[in-house]
Design a protein that fits this description.
The complex is a heterodimer. By secondary structure, chain A is an all-alpha fold. Chain A has helices at about 1-25, 30-55, 65-85, 90-110, 125-155, 160-165, 170-205, 210-235, 235-260. Chain A is flat. The relative contact order of chain B is 0.11. Classes of the chains: A mainly alpha, B alpha/beta. The interface of A and B includes residues 151, 160, 170, 234 and 236 of A.
Chain lengths: ~270, ~475
């Protein structure tokens, strides 16, 4: 059952992505409704997939990378739907849907079996949930930064095309960028703390200074500096957009590194 | 049979020299309408006179006689005009083409600037005058109201009026692509060029909360500051104050650059990298073009604004095609209604209606009186028929008598309403319901739609003026 829900979700997100990308390039607004409908339906199946997996395994489905990526994708769509309902920025879907689809596809490529946990790391899902939610914040910041740079470029080069017409105002994107980091940063901080506590229980050490832990800390410091820079010396607008794109690239690299290394349950 | 005709001329067929001679000032519109309707061929009349068009809409029985009367009326309206001079510039439409023309005019598809919103208001005014002088009756009332509702539909369902077609309004549109909320923004107006002032006015209408003004002549600045409810800044200081401004509008007569890259760089530093939007409407330009290479500074000159408008015009053309299709459909509906106003179909419908009611009631009653003898049954049926026929006799005779009178449309419309004839055909009833719904909507006080409200008067710039229909 969970697998069927999972596949349906993937199919719907694929349709949603295609239709949202077409929406971006077409003058008509009609496609936004279709795209949104498909996305909402996909989200429903996604929720069912997560729920049924939880029922089947009897534990919070957040212990393997497969589950972490599935959850990431789910939370990303959730955030998109919330922003969409409140602010009607359809074009956000054209950027977030592909990202959600990619993370779901990479989840599909990872082993699906439920890892059997040692009792000591039974709370590892707290660490994964918080870190993933933090990452969702950074992903939205990344998308906002990307949209900012595109709109900035279109305005500078005076290309008043369909994309220009559909992208929201620059200061909205900058604000979205800031809010996403403000939302993501504390969650990542808590996630890292939760991870460290789990580490103490599992291995008796706060940090083992393995590459992924080191990278996670580097990411944390990076976003901390970005946040402080914005408040104190005005690292906003174009610079903030660049920085959040670089930051997110770092996050993605950490993920890939960790996955390649362990290829299985969280260590 | 009554037919709608339109005879008139517009910016497409007549030069302004002719249009201005024919134009009827608002104060004399009523008088002109009464003169129009004094022609025996004219049953109903409406006169639409704006600076881009003078048109007579009329309901006539004989099309040719109607055409002749309207032409005579137009030629008589100005002493120096002769029919020969006028004729080559006139267009003549009848029936469906006349209705279609009215709908297109109302929806601003025939305007000099397609999609400009003034014409609808002008049509409403003209209709008010016709109503006040009782020159508009059943047919024109219905068709003009329909035209107004079609125009509203076009405006809400297409994006024909959604985009700017004037330079000063394009500045607002661009500002909205940089700032999501103009109400917290500050505008710096450098120089007192007409277009910059207009753009500043538009920005204020969009809620910009603070205006700073700097002109070479300090008296001018103070004067403008009073008018815009802003503050004046000495001309030698405006570069230093630029950091406070989110939007800089520059249009002076200076022949050199007034704002250099260093000035903008300093402003952006002061603003902690918040974007600044600079519009240079002066020719020769007053802002160094190299400013556009500075991060977070967005500089647009007059050509960029023109480019923006050109894109909007294309959009309007696309939307106009959509509107044309909507109008075609609406003309069909209007024609159906007109057809229903003929006597014969009304009589048929009335008889049918009575017959239906009679049969229905008989079935109900006879069903309950199962023990009647055949003779008694036929008596009951006879009673029902007699009542129905006696009741219908009066209305049917009146309808036949009035068939050729000038008030026939009114009689027929009344008969259709009294006997609920249009309820029988579902589509028309639905259409009427929709219509009255829209009318209720129209009754709300008109909230100014910001995106539509760009009644620029940019006469000095040579730009076509969207508000020039009057």
């Amino acid at each position: 059952m969970p697998v069927m829900f999972f596949m349906t979700t993937m199919g719907l997100y694929l349709v949603g992505t295609t239709s949202f990308l077409a929406y971006l390039l077409r003058r008509s607004e009609a496609l936004s409704k279709v795209s949104l409908g498909v996305t909402a339906l996909g989200f429903l199946f996604h929720t069912l997939a997560l729920g049924s997996r939880m029922m089947a395994s009897g534990q919070v489905p957040l212990t393997s990378f497969h589950e972490a990526m599935t959850f990431f994708s789910w939370a990303l769509i959730l955030v998109f739907l919330v922003v969409e309902i409140r602010q009607r920025i359809h074009v956000l879907g054209s950027f977030i849907l592909p990202l959600a689809l990619i993370s779901l596809l990479s989840a599909a490529a990872l082993p699906k079996e439920v890892p059997t946990l040692q009792p000591a790391v039974g709370t590892v899902w707290v660490h994964v949930t918080l870190s993933m939610l933090g990452t969702v914040g950074f992903a939205v910041a990344f998308v906002a930064g990307l949209m900012y740079l595109i709109q900035d470029g279109l305005l500078k080069s005076k290309r008043f095309n369909v994309l220009y017409a559909k992208l929201p105002p620059l200061d909205y994107l900058d604000h979205l960028n800031q809010q996403s980091i403000v939302f993501g940063f504390p969650l990542l901080t808590l996630g890292i703390i939760a991870g460290a506590i789990s580490g103490v229980f599992a291995k008796g050490a706060l940090l083992s200074w393995n590459p992924e832990q080191t990278w996670a800390l580097v990411t944390w410091v990076f976003y901390f500096v970005v946040l402080i820079g914005r408040i104190t010396v005005g690292w906003r607008a174009k610079r903030a957009a660049y920085l959040t794109i670089i930051g997110f690239a770092g996050v993605v690299l950490t993920f890939i590194g960790v996955v390649l290394k362990s290829h299985g349950p969280v260590t | 049979m009554d037919t709608i005709i339109v005879v008139g001329l517009s910016h497409k067929t007549a030069p302004v020299e002719l249009r201005e001679r024919l134009a009827v000032p608002e104060s004399r519109l009523g008088e002109a309408l009464c003169r129009l309707c004094s022609y025996p061929a004219i049953r109903e009349g409406l006169l639409l006179s704006t600076c881009n068009r003078v048109e007579v809409y009329a309901v006539v029985e004989e099309v040719e006689a109607g055409y002749a009367s309207v032409q005579e009326f137009l030629a008589d309206s100005h002493m120096s005009l002769s029919s020969e001079e006028l004729t080559p510039h006139l267009y003549w439409y009848t029936g469906d083409r006349a209705i279609s023309h009215l709908f297109r005019v109302a929806a601003s598809l025939d305007s000099m600037i397609v999609g400009e919103p003034q014409i609808l208001g002008q049509l409403k005014d003209a209709f008010e005058v016709a109503l006040a002088h009782k020159t508009s009756d059943v047919i024109l009332n219905k068709i003009v109201k329909k035209g107004i509702s079609v125009a509203k539909r076009v405006r809400t369902e297409t994006r024909i009026s959604d985009t700017a077609v004037s330079v000063s309004y394009a500045a607002v549109e661009l500002a909205k692509k940089i700032f999501s909320n103009l109400s917290e923004k500050t505008v710096l107006l450098v120089g007192a060029g007409e277009m910059a002032k207009l753009a500043a006015r538009h920005l204020m209408n969009q809620g910009v909360h603070r205006v700073m003004i700097s002109t070479r002549n300090p008296h001018n600045a103070v004067d403008l500051a009073n008018r815009f409810n802003g503050v004046s800044i000495p001309f030698e200081d405006f570069r230093r104050e630029m950091g406070e401004a989110d939007i800089v509008l520059c249009s002076t007569g200076a022949s050199h650059y007034l704002i250099h890259a260093e000035d903008v760089q300093r402003a952006i530093r002061q603003r902690m990298n918040r974007p600044i939007f600079l519009i240079d409407i002066s020719v020769p330009r007053n802002i160094d073009p190299s400013v556009k290479d500075i991060d977070n500074a967005f500089l647009f000159d007059i050509d960029d604004l023109e480019l923006h408008i050109e894109n909007n015009r294309e959009e309007r053309r696309r939307e106009a095609a959509k509107a044309e299709r909507m109008i075609e459909d609406e003309v069909v509906v209007a024609l159906q209604w007109l057809k229903s106003l003929e006597v014969t179909p009304t009589i048929v419908a009335l008889r049918q209606r009575a017959e239906d009611i009679k049969r229905g009631e008989l079935e109900k009653t006879l069903g309950r009186l199962a023990n009647l003898s055949p003779q008694e049954r036929s008596l009951v049926e006879g009673l029902a028929s007699a009542i129905v026929n006696k009741l219908l006799h009066g209305p049917l005779v009146a309808l036949k008598q009035e068939a050729h009178a000038s008030s026939s449309a009114m009689f027929i419309e009344a008969a259709r309403r009294f006997f609920n004839l249009d309820d029988a055909t579902g589509s028309e009833a639905a259409d009427d319901a929709r219509e009255s719904g829209r009318r209720a909507e129209a009754a709300r006080p008109d909230v100014p739609v910001p995106a539509v409200d760009y009644a620029d008067r940019e006469g000095t710039t040579g730009e076509p003026d969207p508000g020039s229909q009057r």
